[in-house]
Amino acid sequence: MATCAECALYFQVPESEDDFEKGKGDCVTEHKDQKGKYWLSKPVFETSETCKAFRKRS
Amino acid sequence: MSVVASQLHLAIGTPTPCKVCKWQIADPTNPDQGQCTVNRTTMGSVWKRWIRDAQNMTCSKHEEGKLSFRDHV
Amino acid sequence: MTTLAQPVNYRGKIINFPPAKPEEAEIPDDELSEHLFAPSTDRTRRLKGRCRWKHASAGEFVEKGVRAGIERMQLITESHKSSRGKAVVIRRAMMLANVLNKCTVVLQQDEFIIGYHAEDPNMFPLYPELSYMNVKDYLQSDYSPLPAAEAEEINNYWAPSSLQTKCEKYFDPIDLMRMYQVSTMEAPSFAHGYNSIVPPYETVLEDGLLKRIEMAEEHIREAKAEMARQPWDGTKGLDWIAKIDNWESMIIADKAVISWARRHARLCEIVAENFETDPARKEELLEMAEISRRVPAEPCKGLKDAFQAKWYTFILCHGIERYASGYAHKEDKLLWPYYQTSVINKSFQPMTYEQVVELVEMERLKISEHGAGKSRGYREIFPGSNDLFIFTIGGTNRDGSDGCNDMTDAILEGARNIRTTEPSMVFRYSKKNRAKTLYHVFECIRDGLGYPSIKNDEIGTEQMKYYSKFSLNNNGATDEEAYDWANVLCMSPGLVGRRKTQKTRSEGGGSIFPGKIFEITLNNGYDWSYADMQLGPETGHAEDFKTFEELWEAYKKQYAYCISLLIRAKDVSRYMEARFLQLPFVSSIDDGCMELGEEACSLSEQPNGWHNPITTIVGGNSLVAVKKLIYDDKKYTMKQLMDALKANWEGYEQMQKDFKNAPKWGNDDEYADSIIKRYYEEIIGGEMRKITNYSGGPVMPVGQAVALYMEVGSRTGPTPDGRYGGEAADDGGISPYFGTDKKGPTAVLKSVAKVQENQKANLLNQRLSVPMMRSKHGFDIWHAYMDTWHDLNIDHVQFNVVSTAEMKAAQREPEKHQDLIVRVAGFSARFVDLPTYGQNTIIARNEQQFGAEDLEYINAQL
How near does any CA of chain C get to the CA of B55, in Å? Predict the structure, then answer.
């Protein structure tokens, strides 16, 4: 099973950040609807199972 | 007390509860209660009646559906 | 072609009214508003074009796709379950921290001010810790959070410990049933969760949260040292425990807020580096990131910082820590130091006045997207808008000098350009205000925005001094601080600043409905026309009142019963809020809470108690008609009147005309005005001010309306003022009933000025002639009118300047009139988002023309 760590939308939280935890990252997704584009960021862990937004990191 | 079919009355388990009537709109505070808006004056005003029990009250003017916000108050 | 106002023969001259802008002569009356939208930049034009409005009407959301989110419910519940055993205030801080650490953060295309309070910009959060009925209503609606089963489980989890359940047990179930109907009384806040607050923005902008954390840490160190003093004194030493917990909760909250803001910074950086292709926007995203790394952690250094820190504080206080309506702050004063830095000195975040106007427009659009998880009752009563968002500008400074500055002008200019219904604004009118700013105020009003509404600057300042005398800790507003006020919501002044501001609606807010109360007074307290139940004490049947005074006394008793119950409900809410719904973030940014180690809902330094009588004039005009036709002229008996009312005047048409034509409020008619003055001062204000609330001060009436004049009108049977059952009630505070003010605009002012005692505020709606206001004399007439209004010591006035032709055109073709805005009551609404019932009440308002006598009275210099 693929994990968030393999996803192109997973961005590791840098050690300098207040909310740094080992293996923690931001899942950042782009969305578009009739009103326009927006981006959502949600904390995830690299070991989490991927979701339907998964995009294989190139 | 006799029941007048055209007026709101209690009918436990009625298949035509106010809750799904197009003239009903929920109570402002308690979602188990409601407001009947079927009384409309020729001037366009809506004279509401309180529904104590939206699941178990009905009347002969019952119609299923939902009115647009524009037809409410 | 534009219709022109009829010429007036004034002081021996024929005064014509050509349009101030000659090019407007070719614009048809029924499409004027569509020509007034003038965004300052392409960006704000795009932002408005894609604005995610969350207007509600008749309890429904107007735009498709709007719904409640579940994320906040999930995260507070997760924290609540895992923090058992800790002090309640610490648990409240941990709940907030859990939300801020784990919530989704949102960035939208084109925006410069970042931050949203739900997991998707089309959503809004819910608050199961407040009212289980409110969440249940959402679960049964088309806007239910998903998955619905999980949301229901969460609501069931919270129901036993919700504010509603905690408070209900202290009330008779009959009293609760009466309040929940919202016909004589508004439901208490514990049953609907509606709230309002005045956040102390100043401390966030001036200090930054890192400093607030240091302050709390220092207090804890001092407290622990005090506790260690020998010999131990348990009567004093134990007080430190609650204080230490409060300071600790503040630290938890503030650290979480800083981290959350920096998550926004990180999102901007990630989007800039991985998604955005436009180099200019990339650069802007990196600037936004840089700002969110610094604020609200550090003090603001420039105007962009201030807008962003203010926004974060707003969504925390109004949408995340707890729901609260409002947007109370004195915006021009708050932002002026940063304006000076960025625009005048250009020493940090340098920018031009025009760029400030763009920022104002962007902020207005952020507010326009802000969704509120408010109850059905509250979704019904602000139709055509998202929620009540109202800020204040103008007035005077602490030294009494003119409070207007270039920031004031930018705020007004941005509002006029972008034409959004929210936020509404209040202008504090003083004769010291500079003409340049007054012209901007006039332009907004003339263009039909309905705002600013105007408050009398001196009355508000004196009121802050008066309430200060009742301060329980002798630390109410000083004479200087009394100048620092803004409207808390639509109408009532309250302090702004670093401390002493309102933190919960239990201080002020909530409504009582004298129109319906009058109806039940005639029927021994029984409501035959809506709920079919006893709604108040048994005070006798109208047919048995031998004199007008007997009726008067019965009415007074019904009103007194309602108002005592209502204020008791607010104070019981506050008692529970202070113990179970603490606000650690709000506490951390209030200097009083920080100094004293107290919690925001608990601490009261400046009393400011009020409650809103709505539908007052239906009651007042009914008293006048009954006295005139039954007790004085004896044209009809009370029995005949009661029969006619029960028949909704059917078969009694002549009688209805006689009652409709009885003297009415707003015509400078001594017969009507003497009764109504006594009614306002002795019953509406007199009975209310006998009450002492949680804060130790009197509760005073703030007459207004929101759209409760429609809702309560539809729950009120026929009344002796000639009204039919279900017709709307009067549209606000001290405003004449629509269409019955027939003696011109200055007669209205003369009537209103007669009511002076026992009032905190009173809303006055006036509709002015569009062609007169848009003529070359428009400003001079309005300015002279305002000076007269001020000299008559009237508290408030607001205007509709919209033609009947345009409103009727919008009823026919709503899609073509999206920019038509009207003033409903304490808020402005998009006309096409109102129910037809409400639209008709705006059209029915009398469009006041200034004749020669009016112009003479206001001493217009034309």
Answer: 13
Q: What Cα–Cα distance (Å) separates residue C828 from each residue in C47, C424, C712?
A: 20, 7, 19
pLDDT of B4 higher than 90:
no
Dihedral of CA atoms C315, C319, C323, C328 in degrees, nearest 10, equals 20
Hey, are the CB atoms on C838 and B73 less than 8 Å from each other?
Answer: yes
- Is the CB of C270 less than 8 angstroms away from the CB of A26? yes
d(C-alpha C211, C-alpha C219), whole Å: 12
Specify whether the CB–CB gap between C384 and C55 falls below 8 A. Answer: yes
Joined together, the tokens standing for residue C771 give 């062609």
Closest C-alpha among C5, C847, C47 to residue C417: C47
Q: Give the H/E segment covering residue C270.
A: helix C239-274
Sign of CA dihedral C698, C703, C704, C707: positive
Find the residue in A nearest to C101 (Cα): A19
Contact C114, C82 (CB under 8 A): no
Q: Which residues of C are less than 8 Å from A17 in CB distance? A: 259, 262, 266
Q: Name every chain C residue with its beta carbon within 8 A of the beta carbon of A38.
A: 106-109, 121
Whole-number pLDDT of residue A58: 81
User: How many CA within 13 A on the CB side of residue C809?
Assistant: 17
Looking at chain C, the whole-number percentage of residues with pLDDT higher than 70 is 100
Question: What is residue C783's three-state secondary structure?
Answer: helix
Mind telling me how many Å the CA of C213 is from chain A's nearest CA?
15
pLDDT in the model for residue B1: 52
| C176-191 residue pLDDT tens | 999 999 999 999 999 9
CB atoms < 10 A from the CB of A18, how many? 15
Burial C131-170 (b: 16+ CB within 10 A, else e): bbbbbbbbbbbebbbeeeeebbebbeebbeebbbebbbee
What pLDDT shows up at residue B2? Answer: 66
Q: Are β-strands B49-51 and B34-36 bridged in parallel, bridged antiparallel, or unpaired?
A: antiparallel
Output the CA–CA distances (angstroms, integers) from residue C141 to C138, C476, C626, C835, in the order listed. 5, 44, 44, 19
pTM of the model: 0.97
Grouping H, G, I as helix, E, B as strand and the rest as coil, residue C45 is helix
Map C14-82 to HEC letters. Answer: EECCCECCHHHHHCCHHHHHHHCCCCCCHHHHHHHHCCCCCCEECCEECCCCCEECCHHHHHHHHHHHH
Question: Which pLDDT score, from 0 to 100, does residue C1 have?
Answer: 76
CB contact under 8 A, A19 and C108: no
Find the helix or strand (DSSP H, E) in which C413 lies. helix C406-418
- B69·C531 Cβ contact <8 A: no
Do residues C189 and C505 touch, judged by C-beta distance below 8 A? yes
Supply the ipTM of this predicted assembly.
Answer: 0.98
Residues of chain C with pLDDT under 70: none
Contact across the interface for C724 and B43, Cβ inside 8 Å = yes
CB C721 within 8 A of CB C621: yes
Residue with tokens 């802008």: C21
Distance spanning both ends of chain C, measured CA to CA: 25
Which residue type does C804 have? T
The pLDDT tens digits of the residues spanning C507-529 come to 999 999 999 999 999 999 999 99
CA distance C413 to C447: 12
| Distance (Å, whole) CA C126 – CA C145 | 9
pLDDT at A3 over 90: yes
A11/C270 CB distance under 8 A = yes
pLDDT at C810: 97
Task: Please tell me the least confidently modeled range out of B6-10, B28-32, C69-73, C675-679.
Answer: B6-10
User: Measured between alpha carbons, how far is C763 from C826 in angstroms, rounded to an integer?
Assistant: 8
Taking the C-alpha atoms of C755, C756, C762 and C767 in order, what is their torsion angle to the nearest 10 degrees?
50
Chain B neighbours (≥3 Cβ pairs under 8 A) are C
